[in-house]
Design goal:
4-stranded mixed beta sheet, Translation Initiation Factor IF3, alpha/beta, Ubiquitin-like (UB roll), 256 residues
Length: 256
């Protein structure tokens, strides 16, 4: 047994423009097909005039007293009106707001990554809402978040304008950035040297894969003396101790 369709209770959309016999007022102000004023006359007389011209009597200003009507081809009028609305929507610029979130103790590498995201959004002519999220007792030091936002706005001064200064909102601090005039006009479309930077970073990766295949394959072509020293009895090289980078919102940087 087929499943019946759900009944749509919404009323169908109706054209509320009154034309021809739907105009129920006793008299109207008439404008003919050429745009000339013909004055106030009874509605029946105006309707006969439109029918003699093989056109429609359309109410264009129902709020006026008496209502203003016009003699025209209503189907052609609706088509031209729809085309005008379509052109207006085409030239409308849609505003997109992106959001990116920072932490007050964000590391330098993470900061650079998020800054590149903000640059990409601005180059696409989108607005960017930058949010600093505070947790726990971090909210007692709002100057750390404000320092990060001010630094970001200063470094992106060529691409962005600050539409909203940093504002505290509960446990968050927000700042709104918009694309600069240079970006909107197309003077700035991208950064020079992006492809060369990516190529420089890709070359060391390929070299490391060629030379660093550890285990048995890494000593296959070495002399016997080197192969004997690469086993378990060989001396191990000490590992370098990784340096811990300070977060951007640390007390040492605030003191500096």
């Amino acid at each position: 047994m087929p499943v019946p369709r759900r009944f749509d209770r919404r009323p169908p959309e109706r054209d509320t423009t009154r034309i021809n016999e739907r105009i129920r007022v006793p008299e109207v102000r008439l404008i003919d097909e050429t745009g000339a004023q013909m004055g106030v006359m009874p509605t029946d007389k105006a309707l006969r005039y439109a029918q003699d011209k093989d056109l429609d009597l359309v109410e264009v200003a129902p709020e006026a007293r008496p209502p203003v009507t016009r003699v025209l081809d209503y189907s052609k009028y609706k088509y031209e009106l729809a085309q005008k609305q379509k052109q207006a929507r085409k030239h409308q610029q849609q505003i997109v707001v992106r959001e990116i979130k920072f932490r007050p103790k964000i590391a330098q590498q993470d900061y650079e990554t998020k800054k590149r995201h903000v640059e990409r959004f601005l180059l696409h002519k989108d607005k960017v809402k930058v949010t600093i999220m505070f947790r726990g007792r971090e909210v007692t030091h709002p100057e750390r978040g404000e320092m990060i936002l001010d630094r970001l706005a200063e470094e992106l001064a060529e691409l962005a304008i600050v539409e909203q200064r940093p504002q505290q909102d509960g446990r968050n601090m927000t700042m709104m950035l918009g694309p600069s005039k240079a970006v909107l006009s197309g003077e700035i479309e991208g950064f020079e040297g992006e492809s060369s930077d990516e190529g420089d970073e890709a070359e060391p990766t390929a070299t490391a894969e060629d030379n660093g295949g550890g285990g048995q394959g890494s000593t296959a072509g070495a002399p016997p003396e080197e192969r004997s020293g690469s086993g378990q009895g060989g001396a191990k090289k000490p590992r370098a101790k990784p340096t811990k980078e300070r977060p951007l919102g640390s007390e040492e940087q605030l003191a500096d």
